[in-house]
Design a protein that fits this description.
Blueprint lengths: L2 H21 L17 H32 L1
């Protein structure tokens, strides 16, 4: 591997670790300090739950569009 590829892998691993850290709840480690995480999982769960409705609408529109296009052929 070239040095550039190794650096990309290291940066990728650091980004993954940073993402995991932001999701972690300090209470999971018996701590209260922000050093153990930011507990953003609750916000992420809200975003996921809030996205289900619009995702279903989008899937429905795409399904109708594909069926309409197939019927023209």
């Amino acid at each position: 591997m070239r040095l550039g590829d190794v650096l990309k892998v290291i940066i990728g691993i650091l980004v993954v670790i940073a993402g995991i850290w932001t999701m972690a709840d300090p209470a999971w480690f018996g701590q209260k300090s922000w050093l153990y995480g930011l507990n953003w999982w609750t916000y992420t769960a809200d975003i996921i739950r809030g996205s289900i409705g619009p995702l279903l609408i989008l899937v429905g529109i795409v399904t109708v569009w594909i069926a309409y296009e197939e019927s023209k052929v």
